[in-house]
């Protein structure tokens, strides 16, 4: 599916001269985490995000002395404006910022949002902002993973899939892990370097198509060289 199918054209753009409290009320009323800022012709000028508003309303941090020596004076001036400004144009995030075209796929939009940690993307065609793509709309139209029915994947296939999944991940290759499957339940035995690695391996096993359960026999190797087990939260 293309972005053009989900782009929100009903979301009203902001103008740079508007007050930030007015902008926040509009963001809240339209239930979006960010709003695009355009000029009278529809050309995109910037994005106003919840983070921009937090930066403005939170107590301002004074520059460190080394920042005044090594930092850019223009950047310090821009930070000051963002922390003290009264209008959307003062505090918004200006170009370069991430946009998407209406003919891009929803999967491409999801990848951009994940990479840049964005809650909304302006859709731009021929230099004109035609609307907004929100994270919620993207999630509504992505294909959610469906679990395979129990018994549709054999134990040998589960073992092979788990070993291949471990080999693909650099973080999971530091310690040998024994993989066994019986009646769809994947048993993991071995030593891991941290609780995070252990939890990730268990999540990996649970996510395999056809797995009916996971038996955890992993041991966490502490920094002191001693091994211990720990429950997954």
Protein architecture, described:
By secondary structure, the protein is of the alpha+beta class. The chain has 2 domains: 3-141, CBS-domain (Roll), CATH 3.10.580; 155-228, Histidine-containing Protein, Chain: A (2-Layer Sandwich), CATH 3.30.1340. It is 37% helix and 22% strand. The strands form 3 sheets. The chain has a 4-stranded mixed sheet. Strands 1-2-3 form a 3-stranded antiparallel sheet. α6 (106-116) crosses α7 (135-141).
Give a concise summary.
The chain is of the alpha+beta class and 233 residues long.
Look at the helices and sheets and give the structural class.
alpha+beta
Q: In total, how many beta strands?
A: 9
Unreliable residue stretches = none
Q: How many individual helices?
A: 9
Which outline best applies? elongated
Total individual domains: 2
Mean pLDDT: 86
CATH class of the largest domain: Alpha Beta
For the biggest sheet, the summary is: 4 strands, mixed
Q: Determine the fraction of residues in helical runs and give it as a percent range.
A: 25-40%
- The appropriate CATH architecture of the largest domain is Roll
What is the chains' assembly state?
A: single chain
Q: What is the distance, rounded to the nearest whole angstrom, between the alpha carbons of the first and last residues?
A: 37 Å
């Amino acid at each position: 599916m293309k972005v053009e199918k989900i782009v929100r054209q009903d979301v009203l753009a902001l103008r740079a001269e508007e007050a930030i409290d007015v902008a926040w009320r509009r963001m809240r009323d339209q239930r979006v985490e960010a709003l695009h800022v355009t000029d009278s012709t529809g050309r995109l000028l910037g994005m106003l995000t919840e983070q921009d508003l937090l930066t403005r309303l939170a107590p301002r941090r004074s520059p460190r002395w080394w920042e005044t020596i090594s930092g850019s004076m223009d950047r310090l001036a821009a930070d000051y404006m963002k922390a003290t400004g009264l209008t959307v144009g003062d505090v918004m995030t200006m170009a370069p910022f991430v946009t998407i075209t209406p003919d891009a796929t929803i999967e491409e939009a999801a990848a951009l949002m994940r990479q840049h940690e964005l809650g909304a993307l302006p859709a731009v065609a021929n230099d004109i902002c035609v609307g907004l793509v929100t994270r919620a709309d993207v999630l509504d139209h992505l294909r959610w993973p469906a679990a395979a029915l129990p018994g549709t994947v054999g134990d040998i296939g589960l073992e092979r899939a788990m070993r291949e999944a471990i080999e693909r991940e650099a973080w999971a290759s530091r310690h040998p892990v024994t993989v066994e499957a019986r009646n769809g339940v994947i048993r993991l035995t071995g030593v891991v370097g941290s609780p995070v690695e252990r939890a990730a391996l268990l999540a990996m096993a649970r996510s395999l198509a056809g797995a009916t359960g996971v038996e955890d026999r992993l041991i966490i190797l502490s920094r002191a060289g001693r091994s211990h087990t720990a429950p997954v939260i």
